[in-house]
UniProtKB/TrEMBL annotation:
The keyword Transferase does not apply. Keywords: Repeat, Signal, TPR repeat. TPR repeats lie at residues 80-113, 114-147, 216-249, 250-283. It comes from Candidatus Bilophila faecipullorum. InterPro entries: TPR-like_helical_dom_sf, TPR_rpt, Ycf3. Residues 1-31 form the signal peptide. This is Tetratricopeptide repeat protein.
Length: 332
């Protein structure tokens, strides 16, 4: 990788959301398995037809239809299964705050459900309320010390705090099929990535990406690993896929620009750094690397302007080195 280029990997942990959702929905419907220890008498009767329609929409990936059907069912009265399903549908539709409210309503009806607390923790994590998420995961583990989603969530919090060793230790509590779940392997890979073990992280990310081919973050992560391994063609293919799935993510363009830079496709790299900056204007590294590439294209004035902007954002090393070499002084 050329000096100054550094890949960016979004470190959003993956929880076992689908498995937990189906478990809690079915269990609350039958008052068994992971259902509350004592279902509240205030729970409304479960309307099986509405329940099945809402779950079917969720399973088919139509989160909006699922939200509508769960809300229609809830018009008849509060039931934890419907509220949990509504929360899961909101999560799938990237509405974490609405999901939090749905799970909190479910917990008010069924406070003894570890799965509901774990799902609430996942929603709070998605909403960047890490303190709230930790409280919910802790409650879930007090109710059920082996709850896999709460364990994954706790590990995610350690990853967020940049404590990868603790994350790996937490994930080691999982056993059997839970330990082999792609989501768990992904979180282990994130921890390994933070430890600088990119090659070791690659297999876990690849396993998750195979199970979830439409997850843009996984495609981005694989691209980062392939870039580190200098497999530029594969890296670009994964970044192309990530961008196609989520074209608004500035760091994807940044990573693809780094690949193009390594391939000496400098003009294309400048364009992608520009896209990264458009979506993420405070990304100092994108200005640094675009400045480097513009120097290679003999576009000195714009190159120096990029390095000055990076310095304004707190990253001055590159500009200082160019100034020490007698460059950029005439433009400021």
């Amino acid at each position: 990788m050329m000096k100054g280029a550094s890949a960016r990997l979004n470190r959003s942990p993956r929880a076992l959301r689908l498995a937990a959702a189906l478990c809690i929905l079915c269990a609350l419907a039958t008052a068994s398995g992971c259902s509350p220890r004592q279902q509240s008498a205030a729970s409304a009767p479960l309307a099986e037809g509405s329940f099945n329609e809402a779950v079917s929409a969720y399973q088919s990936g139509d989160c909006r239809a699922s939200i509508l059907r769960f809300n229609a069912a809830l018009a008849r009265g509060e039931h934890p299964a419907f509220l949990n399903g509504l929360g899961m549908a909101y999560l799938e539709c990237n509405q974490p705050q609405n999901a939090v409210r749905a799970f909190e309503r479910a917990i008010a009806v069924a406070p003894g459900s570890a799965a509901l607390h774990a799902n609430a923790g996942t929603a709070l994590y998605a909403a960047s309320d890490y303190d709230g998420a930790e409280k919910q995961f802790t409650t879930a583990l007090r109710l059920d010390p082996a709850n896999p989603e709460a364990i994954v969530g706790k590990a995610g919090l350690f990853i967020e705090k940049k404590q990868p060793e603790k994350a790996l230790q937490t994930l080691s509590q999982l056993a059997g099929t839970d330990a082999a779940a792609p989501e768990v392997l992904y979180n282990k890979a994130l921890a390994l990535y933070q430890m600088g073990l990119l090659d070791d992280a690659g297999s876990g990310i690849a396993a998750y990406a195979r199970a979830h081919p439409d997850d843009a973050e996984a495609q981005n992560a694989l691209g980062v690993v392939m870039l580190h391994q200098k497999d530029y063609a594969s890296a670009k293919a994964h970044l192309d896929r990530a961008i196609a799935l989520r074209p608004e993510q500035g760091n994807y363009y940044y990573n693809r620009a780094n690949i193009l830079k390594e391939q000496k496709q400098f003009r294309e790299a400048v364009e992608d750094y520009g896209r990264a900056i458009a979506f993420t204007p405070d990304m100092a590294a994108a200005y640094v690397n675009r400045g480097d590439v513009r120097f290679l294209l003999r576009d000195t004035e714009n190159a120096c302007a990029d390095l000055k902007k990076a310095c304004d954002l707190g990253q001055c090393d590159r500009l200082e080195k160019y100034e020490e070499a007698g460059r950029c002084r005439d433009f400021f």
